[in-house]
Design brief:
Residues 1-123, 391-569 form the FAD-binding PCMH-type domain. GO terms for molecular function: FAD binding; oxidoreductase activity. Residues 324-344 are annotated as: Disordered. The radius of gyration is 27 Å and the shape is globular. By secondary structure, it is α+β, with helices and mostly antiparallel strands. A hairpin with a 5-residue loop joins strand 4 and strand 5 (82-86). Helix 17 (583-595) packs across helix 19 and helix 23 runs antiparallel to helix 24. Helix content is 32%, strand content 21%. The two termini are 46 Å apart. The strands form 7 sheets. The chain has an 8-stranded antiparallel beta sheet with strand order 11-8-10-9-13-14-12-15, with helices on both faces. A 7-stranded antiparallel beta sheet has the order 30-27-29-28-32-33-31, with helices on both faces. A 5-stranded antiparallel beta sheet has the order 1-2-6-4-5.
């Protein structure tokens, strides 16, 4: 019997019951050539159970954990109230990402999932396996790390020890057929050079690992460990763990995934006898091995759900969907509920902001005279961002700290005196999120710009003042890639990207900033420094708290550093331009491309008015009757890019494109993207200013929404041009206006309100990646349900009970 599900094929999104198993879901999706890439080693686990663990299954090396695919969840709280968190769109920068915090966030007690909305993937064209035998388990781990570094299209590198003591490595590849065929030959050569023996692939190649997982869960936490290790330390740690077991007179089973550094450890009952000795040798062995793991940066993981480690107090929250008097910031003497004592602020905090004079000398002592700005001319440089937002009042000073310790000291001092804090990066935001609040201390975090690339682990450890482009360039020098690419990447900082969960054109294939966050260092409202996330694969016990800070725009905590996931740099790329006589035809083609199972690296849309403005500026020679343009980017392995480019061109022709051109050289690439890059300058020639929005709507609703926006333009007598990232429904309607014209200014915000309403009417959201800030804050009550808004306010009160962090932003 087919389970009930709501599938939007053109958007690759499905909504299903949280009690459904991934096996049942994938059986139902198979005829659509789609699947949820969550294939656990243990059968019959519900999606809700796997979400609580943020599990990833056997192919998490390629696809990551379940949290990466969650778009929305319908929850039920203890009172039976239903609350929807999130929505159907890939991008959603509308307040706090509570739905993301559900992944591995069981202790946050947000509620019981009833249904989940999930992104899907096309079934891989070809999947192939290699079973390799190495001299021992450590050798298998070393080979796995070597294969992962070689850039193969791997989905798994499972390792285990067989009955003879040899190390087995199951390498699985997924890609276009020609790519898999070529890479299998290369993999075989590399494995043989490392002394590995190629074995015949058994009928059920995963049977050994399924049995190991079942054993581990059956024994429970008293006999097992679920760890993630830095890949470079995996082989050495395996040898250390085996020596520790010998010291305790025990045997242990070790297995996992070498590409991830995932390690599962089991002390079998027979290892120390059926009944553990009274001296607690099993627990002593496990404690020793866990300590060894911590020494090399290892972390407890949640994949199999066999651990229930006691969380630090600050990681435990009461149910957040319950109505309570904590829906607004508390007085300092109220503190925080006992269930969340870790966020209790110091009793010395002063909520009377007028009671104390601004302690200039104390702030100056923290950062030094050079880095505390108080002169009005200096403060003026920090009054605005790239939006039209105006400050509600003057800042008292600007502090420019040089490290996390200085940030923490500034926050403690500000909290003691009841001084609001507003964080700022490059000031490239488009929603007024970094515009000063009255009487605030602005923290300019640009000096926190360190970048460290770990090639083996494929991560970047960065300060929030580093720009996106700097991180991308640093990764590229090592053959790696940081995919998020907002258009302001040259100046925008990682801190700003995290604050708004920025994305860019490549999000349709690669996801948003939150999908690459593995750990954060942050300063809480009382000045305490926390480190959340495992920094390895994103399955740590407090990963949900790290995710909660993404998109919070500096209102919950001040992020000072982050560990970001990197991927292998695509070997090649190719762009196809398609012109259409109508916007409807272009949008229908976008749906057909997604429905065909293609996931391009970019699908950029420009409507007719936008193209006309560009043509008037640089005269590209576009036909005058062009109603829309699509730019379609394919990247990856050469064979796959060639096939995908041809398929994209064919679908564009079938969709009624009047002209289709594919780049053949890098120079061609530049020419095809010239129109998209010229948009901003071209629009300034039509009107002096523009209000650039970034609504996000379901892919299937793009055409209807843009048609509605065109009607709004006529109604309000203001030009609106639309361009954006069609592949994920992220549109940028730009309302053009003249600030010296009182009539146009009077119509501006009613016009913007109508645009927001058009997006919400089709299931969209106020913001895909720019955030809410101060400009969109008045519309939040319409964008979120009462239950979701109450939950967000509850979170704010828990993290910032005095309301000192970026006041007047995000929440109404």
């Amino acid at each position: 019997m087919t389970p009930p599900l709501k599938l939007e094929r053109g958007a690759l999104v499905v909504t299903v019951s949280a009690t459904l198993t991934p096996e049942a879901l994938n059986v139902a999706l198979a005829h659509q050539q789609l699947f949820l890439p969550l294939e656990p080693l243990l059968p019959d686990l519900s999606l809700a159970t796997l979400l609580a663990r943020n599990a990833g299954g056997r192919r998490r090396l390629r696809y990551g954990p379940l949290g990466r695919y969650l778009r929305a969840a319908l929850l039920e709280d203890a009172n039976g109230t239903h609350v929807m968190l999130g929505g159907p769109t890939l991008k959603r920068a509308t307040g706090y990402g509570l739905w993301r915090a559900l992944a591995g966030g069981e202790r946050l007690a947000l509620g019981r999932p009833l249904s989940l909305t999930l992104s899907l993937c096309p079934l891989p064209p070809v999947r192939a396996l290699r079973l390799l035998r190495c001299a021992n388990l450590a050798a298998a781990c070393r080979l796995g790390v070597r294969l992962d570094a070689a850039g193969f299209a791997l989905s798994a590198l499972a390792f285990a020890r067989n009955h003879t003591g040899a190390g087995l490595l199951l390498a699985e590849l997924e890609q276009h057929g020609a790519v898999v065929a070529r890479q299998l030959e290369e993999l075989d050569q590399l494995a043989q050079a490392e002394g590995a023996e190629l074995l015949a692939t058994p009928e059920h190649p995963w049977a050994m690992w399924e049995a190991l997982a079942a054993t581990q869960v059956a024994l429970g936490s008293s006999h097992t460990l679920d760890l993630t290790l830095p890949r470079g330390h995996l082989a050495g740690f395996v040898a250390q763990a085996e020596r520790a077991a010998q010291h305790y007179g025990s045997t242990i089973q070790l297995w996992g995934d070498a590409g991830l550094g995932a390690l599962h450890l089991v002390v079998p009952d027979e290892g120390l006898g059926q009944t553990p000795p009274p001296d607690g040798s099993v627990q002593a062995l496990l404690a020793t091995i866990r300590a060894l793991a911590q020494r090399v940066g290892g972390q407890l993981a949640t994949e199999l759900g066999v651990h229930a480690p006691v969380a630090p107090p600050e990681l435990v929250a009461p149910p957040l969907l319950h109505e309570s008097r904590a829906s607004s910031p508390r007085r300092p003497d109220e503190g925080v509920p006992p269930a969340f004592p870790g966020l209790r602020l110091s009793p010395t905090l002063n909520s009377d902001r007028a009671a104390c004079a601004f302690p200039t000398d104390q702030f100056r002592a923290i950062v030094g005279p050079r880095y505390l700005l108080t002169h009005p001319d200096e403060l003026a440089c920090y009054e605005l961002d790239a939006s039209i937002a105006q400050p509600a009042g003057a800042a008292l000073a600007v502090a420019i700290p040089g490290n996390t310790a200085e940030v923490a000291a500034l926050v403690r001092l500000a909290a003691t005196h009841g001084i609001p804090l507003v964080c700022r990066g490059a000031g490239s935001g488009l929603a007024g999120g970094s515009v000063p609040s009255p009487g605030a201390l602005v923290l300019a975090l640009n000096r926190l710009d360190q970048i460290e690339i770990d090639i083996t682990q494929q991560v970047a450890r960065v300060g929030v003042g580093a720009t996106t482009a700097e991180v991308q360039r640093a990764a590229e020098t090592q053959g790696l890639c940081y995919p998020p690419d907002p258009s302001s990447q040259i100046v925008a900082t990682i801190g700003g990207n995290l604050a708004c969960n920025a994305g860019g054109p490549r999000c349709v294939k690669y996801g948003v900033t939150a999908d690459y966050l593995l750990a954060v260092t942050a300063v809480l409202a009382d000045g305490r420094v926390v480190q959340w996330g495992d920094g390895l694969i994103g399955q740590g016990c407090d990963q949900s708290l790290a995710q909660l800070l993404v998109g919070s725009e500096g209102t919950l905590a001040i992020i000072t550093g982050a560990t970001l996931r990197l991927i292998a740099a695509p070997r090649t790329r190719r762009t196809t331009m398609a012109l259409f006589a109508s916007l409807e035809a272009a949008c229908a083609t976008v749906e057909q491309i997604r429905a065909a199972g293609l996931v391009p690296a970019g699908m950029e849309l420009m409507d007719g008015p936008c193209l006309a403005a560009v043509e008037a500026y640089i005269a590209l020679g576009l036909p005058h009757d062009t109603g829309a343009m699509l730019l379609l980017l394919a990247d990856g392995e050469p064979e796959a890019v060639h096939a995908e480019t041809q398929h994209l061109a064919d679908l564009a022709h079938q969709g009624g494109a009047t002209l289709v051109e594919s780049a053949r050289t890098p120079a061609d690439e530049g020419l095809l993207w010239q129109a998209r890059r010229a948009v901003s300058i071209a629009l300034t020639r039509l009107r002096p200013r523009r209000l650039g929005e970034d609504i996000c709507v379901p892919v299937t609703q793009i055409a209807a929404c843009v048609a509605h926006i065109n009607a709004i333009s006529t109604t309000y007598g203001l030009p609106i041009v639309v361009f954006g990232h069609a592949g994920d429904g992220n549109l940028h309607p730009n309302i053009l206006f003249d600030p010296s014209d009182p009539d146009e200014m009077a119509r501006l915000w009613p016009c913007a309100h109508a645009v927001f309403a058009a997006a919400l009417a089709v299931g969209g959201t106020l913001s895909g990646e720019h955030g809410i800030g101060s400009l969109k804050r008045p519309f939040m009550a319409q964008a979120l349900s009462g239950g979701e808004l109450a939950a967000q306010r509850r979170i704010k009160a828990l993290f910032d009970p005095l309301g000192l962090l970026n006041p007047g932003k995000v929440l109404p």
